[in-house]
Design brief:
Distance between the termini: 60 Å
Strand content: 5-15%
Shape: elongated
Number of domains: 1
Radius of gyration: 22 Å
Order of helices and strands: HHHHEEEHEEHHHEEH
Length: about 240
């Protein structure tokens, strides 16, 4: 077992957090109005009495970006968790399907599926994770040197009242970061370096964001407004007609 040096974690974050900001901007620049309009519920916007092209565009774009950012940042946190565990327990990215991390601790092999927070999936997605755990266990049990294999659903933030599930442990927030690092305060210590150059990077993002909002507002006004009012029939037909 190794000892985690916090300065190494800080350097990892500072060297890699830029990728998160870069991917945010790339995602923003690639998005198309026609695509996100088809994914959102036009009846909801009518029920909320949204009256301007700008408001409806901003609402659907913000919802899209929020989902994208959660995914992108989840990938960053997964990489951070693997890095940390690698320093302490020689943890590594698993080759097994659906398993993000595997490492040996106290002669037990842990296989970990890393998620952002505890409420990450529906019953179908959870069943898929269980299937991946079972498949990985069958494959890994061929190694006779390993006494026990334990499956972990590791969540980078949040907490749960009951972490012992029927076939796996769900470790969230402090409990998860401590488990992979042997450092009970790591969940607090990583928050500060995450802000590395955040102001600078966010300024670049918001400049691109403003351009996309203006562009989409013009497109929406041209396609879905009549006499300076939203043409709800045309919008619903675009979204839902056969």
């Amino acid at each position: 077992m190794g000892k985690l040096v916090l300065n190494n974690v800080v350097k990892y974050v500072e060297n890699n957090i830029g990728d998160f900001h870069k991917k945010r901007i790339e995602s923003l620049r690639k998005v198309k109005l026609s695509v996100i309009l088809k994914r959102k519920n036009p009846y909801l916007y009518k029920a909320k009495n949204i009256l301007t092209a700008h408001d409806i565009v901003k609402s659907i774009l913000d919802a899209h970006l929020s989902s994208q950012e959660e995914t992108i940042f989840g990938e960053f946190l997964e990489g951070l968790a693997i890095f940390v565990c690698g320093k302490v327990y020689n943890g590594k990215k698993s080759s097994a399907e659906g398993i993000d991390l595997e490492f040996i601790k106290n002669n037990t092999l842990y296989i970990v599926s890393i998620k952002s927070g505890p409420n990450w999936g529906n019953s179908g997605q959870i069943n898929k994770m269980l299937q991946n755990f079972r498949t990985a266990k069958r494959r890994l049990k061929t190694n006779s040197k390993i006494r026990e294999i334990v499956a972990i659903n590791g969540c980078c933030y949040g907490k749960v009242n009951k972490y012992e599930k029927e076939e796996y442990l769900q470790l969230c927030g402090q409990r998860f970061w401590e488990f992979i690092s042997d450092n009970s305060q790591l969940y607090l210590e990583i928050i500060e370096p995450l802000g590395h150059k955040a102001k600078e990077k966010n300024q670049e993002f918001y400049e691109s964001y403003a351009q996309v909002i203006n562009k989409f507002t013009n497109e929406f006004s041209f396609e879905f407004c009549l006499n300076n009012k939203i043409d709800w029939n045309k919008l619903v037909k675009f979204n839902s007609s056969k």
